[in-house]
Amino acid sequence: MTLRCAEPADAPMLADLWADALRRADKHDQVADVELVIKTAAQSPEQRIVVAEYDGNPAGAVLLRVSTLNPLNPDLTVQALSPHVLPKYRRHGVGRALMEAAVTFAEEQGVGHVATAATSGSRDANRFMARLGLGPQAVLRVASTHALRARLTALRPAHERGGRQLTQVLAARRSQRRSQAAG
Prior knowledge:
- The structure is a single chain.
- The protein is of the alpha+beta class and 183 residues long.
- It has two domains: 2-141, Aminopeptidase, CATH 3.40.630.30; 143-183, no CATH class.
- It has seven helices and five strands.
- A five-stranded mixed beta sheet has the order 1-2-3-4-5, sandwiched between helices.
- Helix 1 (11-17) packs across helix 2 (27-43).
- The longest helix has 17 residues, at 27-43.
- It is elongated.
């Protein structure tokens, strides 16, 4: 197995590998997005895309980036973004090699932490990261703006939504009928 920096010619392969992490667009646009990421990483000393090859074939990749731990904590960390291994190369040491590349990059940069994320549904990836000693720091939850707005509106009390609850409307109508019948 060998590790190397990504080249523009890797963009189609990386677009396939990282399909679940890329924006929803047609394949051409996704490849263009990856080409831009490769170009940006090649020009920055704080970024690197590492491609793992197994017997000369692409087997996996990871985007490495120096950043703060989070916007509130200025401690530097190397983010190992989207470490992916093609299914036929899993359990061949590719994931370990990619994470070793992340540690080496952190050491080169003088950074004391490495962070990564695995999709919540990827049990194998999460177990692998845990075996390496990476513990959970936070849970990233995502929703569309539209869906979140709808849920927030539904959770507001009725008087804040500008409407009245059905029971209040029915009680008001009964009260009006009683006052009309008595008058």
